[in-house]
Design brief:
The complex is a heterodimer of chains A (266) and B (82). Chain A is α/β, with parallel strands linked by helices and 266 residues long. Chain A is built from 10 helices and 8 strands. Chain A starts with a helix and ends in a 29-residue tail after the last strand. The chains are: A alpha/beta (266), B alpha+beta (82).
């Protein structure tokens, strides 16, 4: 690919990095990334990946923008209140970088559609806000061997890990089953500092770009936990579980299961 | 003494930083290890910043020559794959 003069300017700070260069920028331009959730995490992840020039960026979200989202979901605005979040973020990202093909998928992800939705993408990003969906995305990515960059936030704490099926542990190696509904409070019940998804989302976007470029060490087999109040980053090792029901030697889970309705109230 | 074989020429007269470096970097990416790129430029800062950057990338700078009051020629030999 030959860069246009505009692209040379837009991506100049990437091109002069030894780890990126013109070749790396081409890899970014050829990459296809799917982000589940255009909310607190999906907005900053998508924003930076659009700025970086990721060729195809898909956003999956079935919700509409509400005023209470704008404290942290930076791709939306008062102009897009009531608009589907994937559409709203698409407008923002296209305005930032017309090189990027932004695909708005206005669906709720479920066991029936997930494999079809993710199959054509190189990297999947989890920016969802509930455990059943997190497990569904994990299971689907393990089945199709898709790299998954998973993030989560609550109150003043966030966490992130990169799941590389076949190479490292999956989410079920850490906790085999989602916690029962109601045990872990949602952001809606417990609150979240608005900037927190920005920190975790930026880390997720960094992991995605490293995977695309094939540079650095992916955050696999480890959970990085950020404590904003104490200003601590700590890593917890996640051992791969050979008996894991999803990615172990003899996996018990053969098909995807649906999300109980009570989780989907957010 | 000028029997050096140039494999590729790059004219970046009129370009300023950082595009002088951006275009030089891309040109080096597009030659083979061992080949030599000749860059001609007229942006004074780049005459010192490009050789420095090329050394940092791991390449050799064979020559930096001010060929007239406003123009410089730099020879870079690609030493490592990008």
């Amino acid at each position: 690919m030959e860069f246009t003069e505009e692209q040379l300017k837009r991506y100049s700070r990437h091109i002069i990095l030894p780890e990126v260069g013109g070749k790396g920028q081409q890899k970014i331009s050829n990459a296809k990334v799917l982000i589940v959730g255009a909310g607190g995490l999906g907005c900053p992840v998508g924003y930076y990946l659009a700025a970086a020039g990721v060729g195809t960026l898909a956003l999956v979200d079935n919700d509409a923008v509400e005023l209470s989202n704008l404290q942290r979901q930076i791709a939306h605005s008062v102009k897009t209140l009531g608009v589907n979040k994937a559409d709203s973020a698409k407008q923002t990202f296209e305005a930032l970088n017309p090189d990027v093909n932004v695909v708005a998928i206005k669906e709720r992800i479920n066991s029936k559609n997930i494999l079809d939705l993710i199959k054509d993408y190189d990297v999947i990003v989890d920016g969802t806000d509930n455990f059943p969906t997190r497990y569904l995305i994990n299971d689907a990515c393990v089945m199709l061997r898709k790299p998954l960059v998973s993030g989560a936030i609550l109150r003043f704490e966030g966490q992130i890990t990169t799941i590389l099926p076949g190479e490292g542990p999956c989410y079920r190696c850490l906790f085999e089953e989602p916690p029962p509904a109601g045990l872990v409070p949602s952001c809606q019940e417990a609150g979240v500092l608005g900037v927190l998804p920005g920190v975790i989302g930026a880390l997720q976007a960094t992991e995605v770009l490293k995977l695309i470029l094939g540079k650095g060490k992916p955050l696999k087999g480890e959970l990085l936990i950020y404590d904003a109040l104490g200003v601590n980053f700590r890593k917890v090792r996640i051992p791969k579980n050979n008996d894991c029901s999803m990615c172990g030697k003899d996996p018990k889970i053969k098909e995807l299961s649906d999300i109980p309705e009570q989780y989907c109230s957010i | 003494m000028n029997d050096i074989k140039i494999d590729k020429y790059l004219d970046i007269r009129g370009e300023v930083c950082p595009y002088t470096l951006v275009k030089s970097k891309l040109a080096v990416e597009n030659i083979e290890v061992g080949q030599i790129l000749e860059i001609i430029l007229d942006y004074p800062e780049a005459a010192s910043s490009i050789p420095k950057a090329m050394l940092n990338y791991g390449h050799s700078v064979l020559k930096v020559e001010k060929v007239n009051p406003k123009e410089w020629i730099i020879h870079v030999r690609k030493e490592v794959e990008d």
